[in-house]
């Protein structure tokens, strides 16, 4: 009986030891030198990615929770040029993907450093809040999954270009007016897309929205002058406008267009499906 108890304890200890090494944590901070911008390049093929505002003005934090036997990770920061490269790759898709095999990556961006973001993820969940940061350029490509992007507070930098490209999946874009962008390209492939253009505009912004297949909703800000152009595939596309949007010639206008300094020019390209346009 005593030998059986010893054997069970030994098995339990071995099991605990294996499980302790089953997951690995990478947690590191990097300081962006004074006078440098931050360029974040993220490449991942499966997992959960979240990007948020750091409470520190110059530190960027990278945290990865993953299984080393399933994922290859690579993190490199070049302080001379302010470039941070993060890669999280799953070695094989033969066994498929489940919740227990998903890598989690968290990146916290310093709030007082001009930042350029280049995100590519093949499959997974993306949850990004860029509110209160200094984002100069933002590019993201997602091949499949769920994407949520929010500017919960105004961007402290004038953003020249914002490119959002999601091939397949559900997309939630919130308070894009706070992004303070000059030009935006939003490409929706197959799935459901909600684009909320509300927020604090500082001038004129232009957004090109290209939608292929799915049910989509666009939310317009009430305090900005709106001008829209729409191209659609005849009877395969359905479009509904709220009260206060009227067509004059080739374009659709809000009642306050030309009377306020804040302006949003939308170019909408529709594929198969429907777009519901509402006020915030």
Describe, in plain words, how this protein is organized in 3D:
β16 and β17 form a beta hairpin. The radius of gyration is 23 Å and the shape is globular. 8% of the residues lie in helices and 59% in strands. The protein starts with a helix and ends with a strand. The chain is mainly beta and 280 residues long. The longest helix has 21 residues, at 2-22. It is built from 1 helix and 18 strands. The chain has one helix spanning 2-22, and strands at 24-31, 38-44, 47-53, 59-66, 71-78, 83-90, 104-109, 115-129, 135-150, 159-174, 181-190, 193-196, 204-220, 225-231, 237-240, 245-248, 251-254, 263-279. It has an 18-stranded mixed beta sheet that branches. Residues 4-21 have low confidence and may be disordered.
How would you concisely characterize the structure shown here?
This protein is mainly beta and 280 residues long.
Give short descriptive properties of this protein.
globular, mainly beta, 280 residues
